[in-house]
Design goal:
There is one protein chain. The chain is an all-alpha fold. 86% of the residues lie in helices and 0% in strands. The chain has helices at 3-45, 52-64. Helix 1 packs antiparallel against helix 2. The protein starts with a helix and ends with a helix. The mean pLDDT is 78.
Length: 65
């Protein structure tokens, strides 16, 4: 193999590795966001007074993350 082919193979391997790591981080972030939203919703149903606009704003911000 020439240097260029080795370099391209390395770049493809590195790109796949980075894509896997990014997917894992996104999965963890999504799990955390779901947990936060569930906690907010549970707080509302447990009778803790929350301003609905505040909770909705937090949920929207978390969903956009």
């Amino acid at each position: 193999m020439t240097f260029s082919k080795l370099d391209n193979a390395h770049n493809r391997t590195y790109k796949r590795k980075m894509e896997r790591e990014e997917a894992e981080l996104q999965r963890k972030l999504t799990e955390r966001n779901r947990f936060i939203i569930a906690q907010l919703q549970q707080s509302k149903t447990n009778g803790i007074e929350w301003d609905n606009n505040c909770v909705n704003s937090i949920q929207n911000n978390v969903n956009l993350s």
